[in-house]
Amino acid sequence: MYEHITYDLVMQRMLDEVPDDVDKREGSIIWNALAPAAIEVCNMYAEIDYTYDQTFADTAEDEYLIRRCAERGITPDPATHAIFKGEFNMDVPIESRFSLEDFNYVVREKISEGIYKLECEAEGVGSNSFLGPLIPVEYIDGLTIARLTELLVPGEDGDDNESLRRKYFNSFNSQAFGGNAADYKEKTNKLPGVGGVKVYRAWNGGGTVKLVIINSDYHKPSATLIADVQTGIDPLENQGEGVGIAPIGHVVTVDGVLEAILNIATDVTLQDGWTWDDVESSFFSVIDDYFSELAETWAKSDNLVVRISQIETRLLNVTGVVDIMNTTINGAQQNIILDADSIPVRGGVNGQRN
């Protein structure tokens, strides 16, 4: 707002107020007296400009954005710890610690003999993609097998300025109140591991509500995550009694998004000297990235549409590919419209070389 207020401008304004019969040249007494004041005035304008920006949600940052959001009842979500399933050849002590890659994990709960829930000590999404053999931090007699086998509840990064800003502006578009759809979406999305939700009313008669969730990595949620959300919203043993987040009288059922397996086939022309083995992994990555982008929009879409044109356009950018044609999805040369509660997952990819 005050970017145009420079030191030279302020200094000239001040000198213009001094009578012309006084020596105003640089180095003069009056010039030397005014110069420090001009610097302070410029600093003051910079502070005013900064303060002005912090009063509006679209430019506020950090603590000022948090305070602005608090006026709408919005608080930043903290980072959370990922929960995994660990499998061992024996029972291990609760609170025993293991490491994998750059992360440490703590045994939190026994599921069954030799199977436990482990919590990553580090918060955030960093550990979500790691599965494999675990190394005990301290020696455990008789332990020969220790593996992370499944991500149960994804870890989440806490809200940054931009995600918090989006929540602030979204709060004006729909008003959450007393178990309406916006209320269910807001409260369900706040639960750890949830990346999105669709709400269905009266799906099984009056007073029933169905929530279909996707995890925060935008994949099919685990049975553990579904159970955790069910307990938080409307515990099965007390359904409809208002014990959880759901209002009394609402019988809520939580389910997970489904995976639609899509097999891709295409005729591909490669550069001279290139083979299918050279591009296969890149094809997998490109298709996976496209499907992941679609999955991120699932909660806001009535039905996801997997488009052949998108697949071909993206595959054409793979190094070594000259041309793509005759692409099919599940044997049909047409776009695929998925069910409302489904996300795409790559099946087989067959690239017929020309």
From TrEMBL:
Sequence ranges assigned to domain Baseplate J-like central in this UniProt record: 176-255
Pfam family, one: Baseplate_J_C
Transmembrane segments: none
Protein name: Phage tail protein
Family label: Belongs to the Mu gp47/PBSX XkdT family.
InterPro entries: Baseplate_J-like_C (IPR058530), Baseplate_J_M (IPR058531), Phage_Baseplate_Assmbl_Protein (IPR052399)
Lineage: Bacteria, Bacillati, Bacillota, Bacilli, Bacillales
Record domain Baseplate J-like C-terminal: where: 263-350
Native source organism of the sequence: Peribacillus loiseleuriae
